Amino acid sequence: MKNFKYKDPSKNGLTDPKLYTKWDLEAIRNSDIIFAYLEDANPGGYGLSLEIGYASALGKHIIFIDEKSPCSYEAGRYLKIVQQTSNVVFNSLEEGVNYLKVLS
C-alpha cells in the first residue's frame, strides 16, 4: 500500500510513559486514518481506548480491529463505546488489512 505512511507506536523505542504518550498523541494528530488493532491477548486495551477517543475527538477516520470482544463478553460490553466512536469495526486483522487495501 504505497499511499500510506505507517506510524507504529510499538516501534518508537520509548519506555517513559510521558514520552510515549506524547508520541502517540502527536502521531494521531498528524494522521488521517487510525488503524487501531486490539489483539485478543491484550490484557486491557486501555491505551488503545484513549487513542481511539482522542482520534474521534479530532475527527479522524478510525478503523478498529476488535479481536477481544468476540472472546470475552465482559470486554465486549465495555468496548461498545469504543466501537461506536470508530468508523468501521472488524473482528480480525485480515479484515482490517483488506479494508485498507481498498482505501489505497
Question: Care to describe what's here?
Answer:
With 104 residues, this protein is α/β, with parallel strands linked by helices. The protein is 47% helix and 14% strand. The chain is built from 4 helices and 3 strands, in the order H-E-H-E-H-E-H. A 3-stranded parallel beta sheet has the order 1-2-3. Strand 2, helix 3 and strand 3 form a beta-alpha-beta unit. It is globular. It starts with 16 loop residues before the first helix and ends with a helix.
| Uncertain stretches of 5 or more adjacent residues | none
Which bin fits the share of residues in helices? 40-55%
The oligomerization state is: single chain
CATH fold label? Rossmann fold
Tell me which CATH architecture applies here: 3-Layer(aba) Sandwich
**Mean pLDDT figure:** 91
The CATH class assignment is Alpha Beta
Structural class: alpha/beta
Q: How many structural domains in the coordinates?
A: 1
Coarse morphology: globular
CATH superfamily: P-loop containing nucleotide triphosphate hydrolases
User: Count of helical segments?
Assistant: 4
Rg of Cα set:
13 Å
Order of helix and strand elements from N to C terminus: HEHEHEH
Number of strands: 3
Biggest sheet features: 3 strands, parallel
Protein name: Nucleoside 2-deoxyribosyltransferase
Organism: Nitrosomonas halophila
